[in-house]
Amino acid sequence: MCEESKKAGQEDCGDVIEAVYLYLDNECSESRRTVIRQHLEECSPCLSEYGIEQEVRTLVHRCCSQEKAPDEVKDRLKEKLAAIDKVGDSLWTEERERASEQSET
Question: Is 66 helix (H, G, I), strand (E, B) or coil?
Answer without folding.
Answer: coil
